[in-house]
Amino acid sequence: MARIDLVENGFVYSTAFAALDNKWVFSPDNPQYISIVQGAGLQLVPATYEGAVLALLPQLAQPYVLEAEFEYAPVSVDDSAGLVLWASADSAVYLSLVAGGRQYSRLRLKVKEGRCEGYAYSDDLGAWEVAGTAFVAPDAVPGIFAEGQSSVIVKRVVVTRDVNLTVGNLPPDSFVSLYSATGDVIATAQASAGVAVIQLGPLGLLLEARLGVSVSGELTALTDLAAVSGGSVYWYNRHELKLYLDGTPVDPGQELSLGPLVAGVIERRLEIENGETGPVSDIVIRCVAFNVSHGPQWASLAPELEGAPGQYEDSLYIPVLAPGERVPFWLKVQRPPDLLYYPSTEHRFVLLVTSGAGG
Length: 359
Known about the structure:
- The protein has strands spanning 4-8, 11-15, 25-27, 34-37, 41-44, 53-56, 64-72, 80-88, 91-96, 98-99, 102-103, 106-112, 115-122, 127-135, 141-147, 152-160, 164-168, 174-179, 185-190, 196-199, 206-215, 218-222, 226-229, 233-236, 241-245, 248-250, 265-274, 280-289, 299-305, 308-309, 315-321, 326-334, 349-354.
- The chain is an all-beta fold.
- β12 and β13 (115-122) form a beta hairpin.
């Protein structure tokens, strides 16, 4: 079978509070207010404290997604508990377990580029609801809060880089599926431009599962049962194919500037090398969309013929690369004539390399 390799792990942190974790900072740092309830989780008891009882993680690199599961039974309408992004008492963002007359059991914060999105899971509806958005102070740290007369138990906290799982290097007519420990399909996504994205949001940011790839209806790759987390990136049938620009290796995932357009055009010579011990066949290089606002329509690729670019096309096909063989090709970015004076100062796209069989 083909391989599915983890190339970027989106997992950041997880705890079910079997014991107090030294990653957390407590305020007040007093077992009267914060303690472990064996078999249940972390308990915050704010009843005799003036203000909010806090359990805070250190500052996390953005982007990240934090999800927590709670047990909470408020006795007063003035009681509140949930997630917080804390910078100070005057600069904090709260996401409460009770809002709009509805109580929730799980909360989620997505933090990216100084903004956060809050989500709350309704057991009654069996779905996540959008709770709101807010700006985040640069020094804000995520955590748990409780205030009022009612205690709260935090059963689990998970932090990942995103809510989605991505699989790349997929051939046409591919589907990616997540399988439970019992073999049931719990999520499926179809590949588009060599990439499939599975939304883990409804399932949870961290779960035990198998990841499988089917091509034209046939299961061609299946991982062992393992932890799968949001923000992780996998590669199907990954081969050690290396790209070079001006003789310098280009790291996968590296954002690279090709330079300024001159009269609306730039051409650059690149090379691709087979780093495997055997041949790699059916290599296809394509320019695909970076995001919704940038597309590949300005970019094209050409083989090198006698030291110069050949015919530019949307994709470049290389039948086979021998071990250690390096082949040059050309990349051109050209603004259409009607957009020659387009005001944007940059245009982004992804250079996607897929391959077939390897030795």
